[in-house]
Structure formats: C-alpha cells, structure tokens
Amino acid sequence: MTQFLPPNLLALFAPRDPIPYLPPLEKLPHEKHHNQPYSGIAPYIREFEDPRDAPPPTRAETREERMERKRREKIERRQQEVESELKMWDPHNDPNAQGDAFKTLFVARVNYDTTESKLRREFEVYGPIKRIYMVYNKHSSKPRGYAFIEYEHERDMHSAYKHADGKKIDGRRVLVDVERGRTVKGWRPRRLGNSQIGCEPGLLPVPLHKCRDIHCRV
C-alpha cells in the first residue's frame, strides 16, 4: 500500500541511517589476559580475628517472637490503664448520671443519625419519659451510639426493657438494658474489664437485690 503514497509521505517511512560503529573503550572480559596467576587466601588467614577471642553471637528476635512481645506489652499496658481508670470510676458520683437509676433504661447500638426527639417518639409508647441523655464524644462532639432514658414510673422502664430490645430505629436494631452502674454492686463496663457484658442483655434479669418492686421480674 505504501507505493501509492505521495513522495512527501513516503519520506516518513524511509529507514534511518545505521548506527555508526564505535570501538569499545576497553577489552571485553573474554579478551583480557591476566599476567599474574591466582593465589589462595592462606597468606591472609593471620589477618582474621581469632575465633577464641570473638564475642559470643547474639541471637536476633524472630518475627513471631517480636509479635508475641508486642502483644504481651500491649496487654500489660492496657491492664495498667484499666486499673488506673477503675480507681477513678465511680458511677454514684458521676455528674452526668442524674435521676433515679431504677427508672433509667440503657439503649445501645443507636444509629449515629438518630436524634433525641426520634428516641423519645419510639420509647414514649411504653410510658411518659422524664429525660433522655445521649452520650457524645467530648472531643469531636459526635454521638457515641448509646443513650440513657429515664421514665416517670419504674413499671414503664420494665415494660420498655421487656419489649424494646431488638427494636429497629433508623435502620438499626437497638439493644436495651437496665442501668447497671448504679444498681448492680460490683458491676463495671466492658472497657474496664467486664467480660460478661457481651451476653444478650434482653435475657438478663432486672437487679432484684435493690429493686423496690417485689414483682419487677422480666
């Protein structure tokens, strides 16, 4: 097809000039000749360090050992933090913990977009609400995903505790429980080492040893 192109376009397909040959600056490895013969390393052995004077070899830490050490250090560091936080944790003197603990319902797994008015509408079906306290991050002012709802009557809190667990609000199923910080002796939150908080709260009984109503069983 190129034979039908005009001369100005045929010039674009013309081969380039060959690369000019330049002699190498030095001989190739197979062309070099060694005048001196190869010798052994026996004359230089005396320059080496005596193995008897050498320090003992140091054993390096393997990757698995390093990961295990870091994991152990992290656990120990967290235990120290928990112990120091546990000494300062006093739910009975918490300025944010107001109202009657036996009328307060703990609501977890709340959607971060859920507002206080939305929670009030959803939980007022169980009885009149006195106050709602939603927890926010102190630094970013973003919601933490849980709240405390104080009812006017204790029986309404028990009704909400019994029926509201697993209720879907704004696309998420909430989890409810009683306020155990001020009602259960020796209880502490998960961040302070409570290993039993992961069980299903809807199956836990209301703390009866402090309950004012002898019939408040769920």
From TrEMBL:
Entry's Gene Ontology molecular function annotations: mRNA binding; U1 snRNA binding
Keyword vocabulary terms for this entry: mRNA processing, Nucleus, Ribonucleoprotein, RNA-binding
Gene Ontology cellular-component annotations: nuclear speck; precatalytic spliceosome; U1 snRNP; U2-type prespliceosome
Basic and acidic residues: compositionally biased ranges: 60-93
Any Pfam family the entry gives: U1snRNP70_N
BP GO terms, sorted: mRNA splicing, via spliceosome
Domain RRM: 103-181
Domain of life from the UniProt record: Eukaryota
Localisation: Nucleus speckle; Nucleus, Nucleoplasm
PANTHER family: U1 SMALL NUCLEAR RIBONUCLEOPROTEIN 70 KD, U1 SMALL NUCLEAR RIBONUCLEOPROTEIN 70 KDA
Protein name: U1 small nuclear ribonucleoprotein 70 kDa
Gene: LOC106548661
